[in-house]
Amino acid sequence: MLKLKLKLKSLLICLVVVSSLMMIAGSFNHDIQPGFIAMVQKSEGLTGEVLGPGRKWIGFRDKIIFIEASEQVFNENMKILCSDDLNFSFDLKIRTQVAGTDGSTVKTILNNKGSSLQKTSGTEKVLPYKALYDTYVKPQARSIARGVVSQYSTTDIRGARAEIEKAIADKLKTSLKGTPVKITMVATSNFDYPEVITSAVERKRKREIAIQEEKAKQAVKLLEANNRLNIAQKMRTVRAAEAQAEAAYMRIIGTNLNKNFLALKSIEAQLELNQRVGVGDKVIIAPSGSMPPILINK
Question: Which domains does the chain have, with CATH numbers?
Fold first, then answer.
């Protein structure tokens, strides 16, 4: 019984020792995630060696500091007084990241931004990239954008958009030389014009629409007038043709209606009448040439 108790006690002690060793070993192993770099801080200071993504082991009493190093996009809401004394609002988008990952650059960053470190555990600290952005990029970007855009009138900004973005990017890149950060893109969006400009543009569009509508009405009226003209011309042609036919007919009739022709027709009428006279019918014969014979049936 005593031996069994001693064995159980020994086993329990071994389990405690193993667990303690695992916890200690675990506390000295750190995973560096993609998009981050790290540097170990010893009692005498930063080592100067940059650690990339992966599992890293640090010594007892050492600490590890992570730096957010991946590309990030920040948005600045800008409101600028332009050359025509009108306020123009827009969004300035900036893509930026750590300029270098060499030991000297990273060490300089951590020494300069020690107060911005955020503690995540007993042996871990992290430096968010926003702390670097707020220090090196943001003030320069806002100042440069204000200087570039203020040279334009509000109505010229949209047309000069590419020119403005390039000017801001070039000036910002130059101003960031020698700093631990860099920019890879500058873009503008969400243009917001002052009320006086938007109202003027709206009135202009209404006028353009009204002009287009009036042109459409004029086109319809012109088409209707052309149709009436075409119809009138065709009717005149028809009437002329009819008049010519009538005149020709009358000329033919006038030529053929002479005395001999009329006498012949009178004789033909009398012959036809004689064939229709029955017993007891009366025939009235007028003087020659005055009118044709008249048959009165009994």
Answer: 72-193 (3.30.479.30), 259-296 (no CATH)
